[in-house]
Write a sequence for this structure.
């Protein structure tokens, strides 16, 4: 007889339902891919237009800041004659540009490209924003410039404009009187500002094309766009990139109907499986349980007639019930036999208890003997361990004694070597100091040179690389402060060489041939020819920093030039700072030269000349650099005191500022009264 398989029916129904589900999912996938592709293209175009509009608006905002904050007629007058313009107007008109647009610096140049004003943020005081660019060449064909420059891994955005009168601000037909630049850094604050304008679009900054490709690979599952940040000649200095998630409502509109269709298919599949199980599996299983419980032979006969696995199972149940009755009879006979066995077990149990009682007594005796043996063995082991420990301790004591004797000999030898080294170092320092004093003999400040003066020197080590000089020729006084950017003996040796070259040049020239900027330029040439190529190309040292000031005692005319230094003049409660050029003596290889700053002096003006250690020394409650701004405040506090009192006050100030820290640089200051 051939029986129909329940398992084959289940497999057939499941196979049909799965095939229908796969076909529906395949159709849904095709529709979804087509919709996503079209939506992504529209979204990408909209995002690109929005990004370009935002960048254009931000550029127009910067140009608006330049035009709204600049009084053009006053600015033209300031470029032509900086000393004729009030300082308050500069801070109110030009200076507010940096604050209103979070700029790094605002700079003004004349038509020759000379910088006549800049107002940097403290963080960017020492940044050279125009390292190799001729400013006047940027505006040969236009009156506006917008570009980017990457300076040591930091990207800066430049907004430049030619300066004309207020009447010609729109047409720009006049010849420019100068150039105005607004510079800001492309940093996290600026990017956050862009992200607020763009909404859900993310923004980042890549330093080069390789970094941009790496970031684009990481965000391959997103919409990715980039814009090059080009310099003044059209080369990308960095890249600004944008990304957005690939989400859209149109995809959900296609997704929802397909989800309902798939849900109906799955529901139909499970309903079919449930009905099939109910008829061909659950009902026969229920009948089988009832037969096993009641032993109903009529139901058993009906089950055996069915042409399924349960029909075959009915014959097995019939055989099972027969074996069950036979086992029941066998169980009764076993119970009778168990009763007999129980009686025999009770007798054996009594005998067993007697034997166990005797065995227990024997075990107690054996345990007592074993405990005594273990105690004896334990004591023997302890004695053996203590003997070994004593032997090891004696051996360690002998080794320590030998090592201690050897260490004492080594310490004595090192003390002798250290004493000899300290003596030699002390002799070298004394000799270098005497050599520097001899070379500086003619350039030492005296009361015959200055009306009143003081020199405050605080080297980092016993001797340092800072020096001061003062000399008179006819009615002219030459004063200067230098820093060779090295400390200790090496700094003192370089200072001695610089002083010798400087004094030699001044001595062989007439006073009419001397000017601070020519002295600095000639000193740069002499250092390069004297020190050789190795010193000139040594990138670990940045040369000599020197400020020179000359003035005529009769006419009160002053001339100032400096290498990476500034000078402060205090007059009737106010202080004025004069800036030197960002050029290091001994490191200038091109045709760049120093600029001369003329100054008209008045009686009782106090001149403050100092090295960078005065402003860069580390200390205070937060262990930070003093900074030039704070140093000028200290000068303003003390300018009305006598110079002798000022020297003591500056000494106490630096004692408190440095505190328990190690001094980070040489400190030298020369102050004199006109």
């Amino acid at each position: 007889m051939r029986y129909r398989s329940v398992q084959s029916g289940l497999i057939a129904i499941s196979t049909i339902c799965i095939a229908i589900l796969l076909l529906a999912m395949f159709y849904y996938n095709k529709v979804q891919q087509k919709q996503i592709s079209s939506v992504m293209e529209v979204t990408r175009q909209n995002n690109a237009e929005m990004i370009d509009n935002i960048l254009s608006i931000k550029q127009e905002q910067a140009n608006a800041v330049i035009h709204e904050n600049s009084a053009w007629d006053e600015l033209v007058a300031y470029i032509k004659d900086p000393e004729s313009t009030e300082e308050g107007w500069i801070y109110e008109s030009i200076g507010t540009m940096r604050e209103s647009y979070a700029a790094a610096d605002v700079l003004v140049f004349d038509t020759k490209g000379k910088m006549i004003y800049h107002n940097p943020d403290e963080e960017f005081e020492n940044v050279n924003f125009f390292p190799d660019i001729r400013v006047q060449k940027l505006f040969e064909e236009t009156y506006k410039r917008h570009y980017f420059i990457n300076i040591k891994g930091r990207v800066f955005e430049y907004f430049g404009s030619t300066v004309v009168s207020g009447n010609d601000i729109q047409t720009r037909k006049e010849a420019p009187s100068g150039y105005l630049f607004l510079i800001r850094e492309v940093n996290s604050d600026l990017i956050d500002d862009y992200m607020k304008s763009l909404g859900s679009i993310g923004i980042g900054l890549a330093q080069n094309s390789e970094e941009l490709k790496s970031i684009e690979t990481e965000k391959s599952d997103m919409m990715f766009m980039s814009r090059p940040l080009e310099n003044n000649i059209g080369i990308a200095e960095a890249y600004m990139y944008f990304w957005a998630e690939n989400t859209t409502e149109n995809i959900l509109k296609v997704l929802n109907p397909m989800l309902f269709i798939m849900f109906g298919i799955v529901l139909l599949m499970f309903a079919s499986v449930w009905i099939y199980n109910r008829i061909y599996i659950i009902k026969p299983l229920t009948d089988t349980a009832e037969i096993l419980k009641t032993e109903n032979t009529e139901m058993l006969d009906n089950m055996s007639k069915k042409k399924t696995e349960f029909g075959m199972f009915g014959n097995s149940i019939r055989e099972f019930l027969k074996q069950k009755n036979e086992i029941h009879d066998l169980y009764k006979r076993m119970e009778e036999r168990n009763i007999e066995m129980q009686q025999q077990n009770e007798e054996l149990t009594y005998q067993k208890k007697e034997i166990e009682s005797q065995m227990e007594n024997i075990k107690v005796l054996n345990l007592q003997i074993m405990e005594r043996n273990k105690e004896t063995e334990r004591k023997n082991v302890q004695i053996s361990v203590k003997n070994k420990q004593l032997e090891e301790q004696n051996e360690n004591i002998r080794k320590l004694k030998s090592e201690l004797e050897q260490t004492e000999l080594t310490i004595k030898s090192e003390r002798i070597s250290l004493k000899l080294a300290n003596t030699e170092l002390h002799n070298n320092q004394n000799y270098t100091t005497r050599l520097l004093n001899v070379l500086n003999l003619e350039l030492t400040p005296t009361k015959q040179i200055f009306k009143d003066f003081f020199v405050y020197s605080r080297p980092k080590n016993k001797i340092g690389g800072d020096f001061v000089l003062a000399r008179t020729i006819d009615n002219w006084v030459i004063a200067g402060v230098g820093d060779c950017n090295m400390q200790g003996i090496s700094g003192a040796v370089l200072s001695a060489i610089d002083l010798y070259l400087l004094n030699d040049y001044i001595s062989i020239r007439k006073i009419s041939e001397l000017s601070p900027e020519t002295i600095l330029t000639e000193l740069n040439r002499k250092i390069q020819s004297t020190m050789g190529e190795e010193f000139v190309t040594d990138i670990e040292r940045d040369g000599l920093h020197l400020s020179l000031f000359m003035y005529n005692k009769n006419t009160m005319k002053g001339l100032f030039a400096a290498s990476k230094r500034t000078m402060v003049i205090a007059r009737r409660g106010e202080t004025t700072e004069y800036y030197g050029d960002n050029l290091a003596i001994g490191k200038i290889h091109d045709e760049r030269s120093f600029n001369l700053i003329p100054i008209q002096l008045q009686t009782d003006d106090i001149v403050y000349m100092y090295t960078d250690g005065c402003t860069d020394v580390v200390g205070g409650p937060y262990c930070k650099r003093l900074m030039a701004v704070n140093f000028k405040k200290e000068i303003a506090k003390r300018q009305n005191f006598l110079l002798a009192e000022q020297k003591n006050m500056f000494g106490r100030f630096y004692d408190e500022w440095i505190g328990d820290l190690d001094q980070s640089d040489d400190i030298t200051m020369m102050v004199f009264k006109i």
